[in-house]
Amino acid sequence: MTEKANPNFETHLNKMTTALSILELSKSYKTKTNGVKLAVNQISLECAPGETFGFIGPNGAGKSTTIKILTGVIQPDSGHAYIFGKDIRNPQSRQGVGYVPENPYLNDSLTPFDILSCTLQIHGSKPEQPAKHIMHWLEELDIAQVSKKKIRSFSKGMTQRTAIAQALCINPKLLILDEPLSGLDPIGRRDVIQLLNKYKEQGGSIFMTSHVLYDIEQLADNVGFIKDGQLTINPLANNQQTLRVKTRGIQALSGAQQTSHNIWERTIDQQGLSTYVAHATTLHHTLIEITPENRLSSLF
Ligand SMILES: Nc1ncnc2c1ncn2[C@@H]1O[C@H](COP(=O)(O)OP(=O)(O)OP(=O)(O)O)[C@@H](O)[C@H]1O
Questions:
Q1: Model pTM score
Q2: What residue stretches are annotated with the ABC transporter domain (predicted)?
Q3: Tens digits of per-residue pLDDT, 130-151?
Q4: Closest ligand 1 atom, CA of 226?
Q5: pLDDT in tens, 247-295
Q6: Paired residues of 233 in beta bridges
């Protein structure tokens, strides 16, 4: 596509400074009953360099469809997207972009070492000592010991680790991650979150989906909530933090639920906290804990 053919050319020029920008992107599918399903409905968003954008929404909301468009797997019906100012219709835009798909498919006759080696070549990435560089990333993902084993013998978690090493080894200018933590055990999840935070600290940009909202809250600077193909940016921006208060006592507390014997829990906003705790104390309750509620979960 030429610049002149793009009706949003002026906006496009402004987007040269963003890691990712999406402008009124739409995609529909034909349904089995000859109908049309609008999977992505005129969505627009921006992810600045060095920013992590969390892209969340329920099953079937349009997340993977958006990611497939960005990664060139499918074409949009209309709209535009740019990676560091390059139109995604140009495959060059994806040079230097690390991608972890949902359920990564890796050629199972290859080894992690082969896969990272091919990936470096495809992206024109030329580390000084390629073998050492590859082993560094396999060590970071804790799969160095199986670097020469074929993927076909791997568990889901090991395959996922290989896909993440593959995305990171090119020193990516942008990471596009579709459920990157799925299939990982708790230690693996913690390690990968640490790696992603390190990548962020070094100025990396991330566009990611996750059903684990806690992970998004840990990593994302901005959040987009998509439902039925429609996107809301930072849906909780003006909401107050809510808190979960747990107390122990015999008497019932108004608004609280008894979750086990003599244990009472209630979600409350910050403003109401002191009154509620004072009320609980009057009724001889002991405060057990106050924890921040996962605010994003309230969107679902
Ligand atoms: N190839 C396809 N053909 C027809 N419909 C499709 C196709 N791919 C996705 N859809 C439909 O488009 C909508 C969006 O699907 P998509 O996979 O983008 O959702 P998602 O947000 O990634 O969901 P999940 O969280 O379950 O992965 C859904 O209604 C889905 O059934």
A1: 0.80
A2: 20-253
A3: 999 999 999 999 999 999 999 9
A4: 21
A5: 999 999 989 999 999 999 998 988 889 899 999 999 999 999 998 776 7
A6: 224
Count of Cβ atoms closer than 10 Å to residue 156 Cβ: 12
Task: Among 28, 33, 37, name the best residue to mutate to test ligand 1's pocket (greatest count of ligand atoms within 8 A of Cβ).
Answer: 37
Q: Which residue CA neighbors atom 3 of ligand 1 most closely?
A: 29
Per the listing, tokens 């579709």 go with 178
Atom of ligand 1 nearest to the CA of 57: 21
Q: For residue 65, how far is its CA from the centre of ligand 1 (angstroms)? A: 6
CA dihedral 106, 108, 109, 114 (to 10 degrees): 40
For helices 112-122 and 156-168, the axis angle rounded to 10 degrees is 30
For residue 210, CA distances in Å to 10, 47, 102, 224, 300 come to: 33, 17, 10, 12, 13
Per DSSP, what are the bridge partners of residue 117?
A: none
Entry field: residues in the chain = 300
With 0-12 / 13-18 / 19 or more C-beta atoms within 10 angstroms meaning exposed / middle / buried, residue 7 is: exposed
Residue spans of beta strands (DSSP E) within 92-160: 97-100
CB-CB contact of 57 with 212 (8 Å): no
Q: Three-state SS for 287?
A: strand
Residue identifier of the C-alpha nearest atom 2 of ligand 1: 29
Distance CA 65, CA 74 (A): 8
Distance 81 CA to ligand 1 centre (A): 19
Domains in the chain: boundaries: 1-96+174-181+204-238, 103-172, 242-299
Q: Say which residues have a Cβ less than 8 Å from residue 181's Cβ, sequence separation at least 6.
A: 188, 189, 192, 193, 210, 212, 215
Measured between alpha carbons, how far is residue 55 from residues 21, 78, 149, 242 in Å? Answer: 13, 20, 34, 22
